[in-house]
Amino acid sequence: MHSAKLTIAKFSSVLFIVLGLYLSASAQENSPYSRYGLGDLTPNQNIFTRGMGGISAATNDTRSINLTNPASLANIGLTIFDLGAEIDTRTLKSSNPAKKFTSANTYFSYLQVGFPLTTAKMAKKDMRWGMAFGIKPVSKINYKIEKSERLSGIDSLNTVYEGTGGVNQAFIGSGFRVKNFSIGVNVGYMFGSKDYSTKLTFINDSTYYYLSNSENKTTFGSFFFNAGVQYDIPIEKDKNGNATKNLKLGLYGNMQQNLRASSDNIRETIVYDPNGSYYRIDSVFEDKDVKGKIRYPARVGFGASYVDKNWMIGADFEYGNWSSYRYYGQTDAVKDNWTIRVGAQYFPNKINNPVIKYFNFVKYRAGFYYGPDYINVNKNRPEYGFTIGTGMPLTSLKKISYTGEFVMLNTALEVGNRGNKQTNLRENVVRISIGISMNASWFQKRKYY
């Protein structure tokens, strides 16, 4: 009893510490493409699947949480505490004029907890039930662009375009499985902000002009809902009737929804202090708490995977209806997009492998993705990347084989690109993702025989 209370207390402490770090994390990236739509879309997959190009539609595992298809939650075997973080380096290359800008960013990918709800009676009827909750980012807005020019017959002008914000989701999901068919739903709250500003500075040798700031601050939020299904088709079974080779099919998606928004529009003169911050001198125009809606588009994805004791090979297709995106009824430079993902995982472990051979128990992953970017700034702007990854046990292999409890370090390396040779502004991304997945028999009653 005391052990259970201590475990829950430790778990709660870790949860609150990590949540605080998640909310306080900041990025220094400078991506001008994040100006459009809802910003740069973050990877929507667990780091377990990111190493395989992000395949998720038909992926389910007893020891990991699938962020994308909630039907997979039915397969959770033990309580899972899953935390992901990433470091990415972005390089912007402009061909006209020929310039290059590089930024490094660190931020949390997700924080989630999953646990099984399957009872003994359900297990006898070949039924499974699981649940998960957590928080994750959907998009990020972060850019700062400075432009200097000479206005004929007037003065030199310096303009700074700046934007911050992004979208997050706090969610709870559940998946239920009957024999080979699984269905699941995620519900929660989607919230975020967009803060865009334009600061003008006239440069004159004889006359001092106050700086001007035109700014639009918008906060928004609403409840959301998405769902998914999966179906397993046994290809081969052992003598006990257990499937040793499976073909898995999956489908997931969300309907279009409206996010309630509140916006402040400000036009003001400002002055900078010695610390680099600014304060208002005079308000030229101000319109606060303007109510409106932001339309978040529908999205659907489907895929298939082949799984046996040593291999997982899969492919996904995802489509987003971004042409329906609206901000206070206005369109933006976005368009419908699709993405193809292909990936594989190899697990070299054989039945008779001794536990002292560690690398036989490491899972090796690789994949790629390709599709047009949803940002519609330049024509023919593809987005593509290649990924590799590993799943490395951090727990003693003997303990894993005895209790089934373990800690897994999932890693993924992604090398991606937005744009091509015809695009004036290309963006290269190198992303290193690290996830810790802790599996344990928490919150389950102890039985003595």
3D structure, described in words:
The protein is mainly beta and 449 residues long. The chain has a single domain (2-440), classed as Beta Barrel (Porin). Helix content is 9%, strand content 59%. It is built from four helices and 18 strands. It has helices spanning 2-24, 47-50, 120-124, 397-403; strands at 40-41, 79-95, 98-116, 127-150, 156-178, 181-203, 211-237, 243-254, 257-272, 278-296, 299-307, 311-320, 326-327, 337-346, 363-372, 382-393, 406-418, 425-440. A 14-stranded antiparallel β-barrel has the order 2-3-4-5-6-7-8-11-12-14-15-16-17-18.
Question: Which labels suit this protein?
Answer:
single chain, 449 residues, mainly beta, Porin, 14-stranded antiparallel barrel, elongated, disordered N terminus
Sheet with most strands: strand arrangement? 2-3-4-5-6-7-8-11-12-14-15-16-17-18
User: How would you spell out the order of helices and strands?
Assistant: HEHEEHEEEEEEEEEEEEEHEE
Q: Indicate the overall shape.
A: elongated
Total count of strands: 18
Which parts are unreliable, with pLDDT below 50 for 5 consecutive residues or more? 1-27
Question: Gyration radius, to the nearest Å?
Answer: 25 Å
- Beta-strand residue fraction: over 45%
Characterize the largest beta sheet: strand count, sense, and whether it forms a barrel.
14 strands, antiparallel, barrel
Domains counted in the coordinates: how many? 1
CATH topology (level 3) name: Porin
Q: Please tally the helical runs, counting DSSP H or I stretches of 4 or more residues.
A: 4
Q: What is the CATH architecture assignment?
A: Beta Barrel
> SS-based structural class?
mainly beta
Distance between the termini: 18 Å
**CATH class placement:** Mainly Beta
Q: Helix fraction?
A: under 10%
